[in-house]
Amino acid sequence: MPVILFLLVFFAYPTGLTLLRAFTHFDAPEVGGLDNITWVLGGAANRTILIRTFTVALLCTAFTALLAFPYAYLMTKVSSRWQTVMMGLLLVSMFFGILLRNFSWVVLLQMQGPVNDLIAALGFDRVRMLGTAPAVLMGMTHVLFPFMALPLYAVLKGIDPRLVLAAQSLGATPRNAFLQVYLPLAVPGLFAGALLVFVLALGFYITPAILGSPKQALISQVLYQQFETRAAFGRAGALAIVLLVAAMAFVLMANALQRRNKAYEG
Amino acid sequence: MTQDLSRTAAGVQFVGVSKTYPTGLTAIAQLDLDIRPGEFLTLLGPSGSGKTTALNLLAGFQSPTTGQILVDGKDIGALPPYKRDIGVVFQHYALFPHMTVRENTGYPLKQRRMPKDEIARRVDDVLRMVALEAYGDRLPRQLSGGQQQRVAVARAIVFRPRLLLMDEPLGALDRKLRESVQLELKRIHRDLGVTIVFVTHDQEEALVMSDRIAIFDQGRIRQIGTASALYDAPVSQFVAQFLGESNCLVGKVDHLPRLSRVTTAAGVFHGVTSDATPQHGTAAVVTRPERCRLFTAQSEVPEGWNQVPARIRDVVYLGALRKVVADLRDGGTFTVIFQPDQILPAAPDVLVAFPPDAARVVLADGPKNH
After folding, report:
1. CATH of the domain at A217
2. CATH code given to domain B233-362
3. For the segment B1-33, what is each residue's pLDDT rounded down to a tens digit?
4. Residue A193 domain-assigned?
5. B5-229 is a CATH 3.30.379.10 domain
């Protein structure tokens, strides 16, 4: 009960208030209107930011999937000792704060950092990497990797490895056995991971703030800016609503897709 | 289904095949095995005896450390599993859970890029053969264990392999169902004329189904032959004890003109000498329970029979037969099967006796924990 009360007072109330403020007039918060919503969706600058945010979130989902699939697959193949080590690595990386992990990228990517040292050593000009969308993407992929790897591993370890052998004994090349038997059975894990990573990526603030720049801002940075520096609560609320609706639309879409895909299980 | 068996069945040879794991464990040691075209060969042995490894080597899931495996005289060592054209039925069927019965059964044909209508026709044929034509659109999890087993068989035979491997395919079925599936598999074997290599640890199953049985233990074949050859003339105590029930007495061996003599703590016993009789040292006299008799007095025992005093511990009624379990003085036990017309001695202290020609003197390699 006290927990629910706490949540009501300190989470539900301010959230509701913020969302309500979205439907007010920018100049006169006591008057209702769609002024703030049109500001978010209407302005060219905001539209660019929205598209950039979704692109980064999608790419981040794709990259974590591409990287986490081999990792999770390997986890199902190695001995139980190595499995523990690999699981430990995932969890340890989650224990280190997101700040620490992001600043490690700052160290790596800065003008005088090791990556640029290597580029210089190879005879090329140093590249400005911090403050760009690729740097943000890299940092986010790193931070969100465990959120893809863990649900994926949970599904992959439940796939009977003899199914692949069976497919091969029936004439399937290793490639076909993987594509026709293993991968379809891995889809629920990919879905679960993609859902988590995409929704988390949409609302990421710290990584873009550290590795990105206002010139290449993502939606959460704009949201913060409106809220904190301009005290434009209505606009911040409108941004939040767009984010929330987008995330929920994605979840519902993914659920519908998965239900169709998983028809054989339910 | 087909008349020309020699055309559809493959012969297999294992030549000096070994499989050693990086951990140093030897799963198979110097295996030589000749599987005849069209035969139903069972690999029988306790778990960890190497029988499943032999099957995996033949299917191509593992490769031998040394030696060659020939199918119809051709070395298949370099062929990956998908080029071997060998049907495999897995222990828990390994049906694809996301495919229907029809899709599962058609899978090997799809891999062979067969036209769709040809696939449909062949799938229909084979599903009819295993009496599952009404279940084509079901998913595996919507089927009973016995039905899943039949889908696994259908999928393994639909592409008409010349060799069919089965790894304990009946292990997950209940006893009653197992018996009917055994007969079903026998019928399929007869109809297709395919060579079947069948792995099991169930000796009853082996006796019912096989043309020949190879008994595996610790990575080696202890004996191979027809069920009756193995039962009547086991070459070792292990084989005698693994296939059917037997009574064994271990002691020092020496040879007489026709028989061998084994001297044990419980007495002196005679048995038939064979190729498998050790020249000297330790040997076992083995005899089957149905060849033994019980007597109450020394004077009743026929001239020349082996005898050993024992005390009756248990009498088990087996319907048509009765089984008597008796303890020997030195701690061993003896089992005697009684015909209904024989009268059980009243006193618990008896003499167990058996004629020398109902016993064989063989290698003493019984399980150490017996």
Report:
1. 1.10.3720.10
2. 2.40.50.140
3. 444 444 578 899 999 999 998 888 889 999 999
4. yes
5. no
Predicted complex ipTM exceeds 0.90: no
- Residues on B contacting A at a C-beta cutoff of 8 Å: 59-61, 80-82, 84-88, 90, 92, 94, 96-98, 107-108, 111-112, 139, 141, 155-156, 159
Whole-angstrom Cα distance, residue A240 to residue A250? 15
pLDDT for residue B370: 39
CA atoms of B260 and B232, how far apart (whole Å): 17
B chain contacts of residue A265, beta-carbon cutoff 8 Å: 97, 141
How far is the alpha carbon of A70 from chain B, nearest alpha carbon, in Å? 22
Residue B185 one-letter amino acid: L
pLDDT tens-digit series, residues B76-113: 988 999 999 999 999 889 999 999 999 999 999 999 99
CA distance A186 to chain B (A): 11
Q: DSSP states of B107-132 as a string?
A: HHHHHTT--HHHHHHHHHHHHHHTT-
| Cβ–Cβ below 8 Å for A185 and B84 | no
Tell me whether strands B321-328 and B333-338 are parallel, antiparallel or unpaired: antiparallel
**Alpha-carbon span B215 to B46, nearest angstrom:** 9
Q: What total number of domains does chain A contain?
A: 1
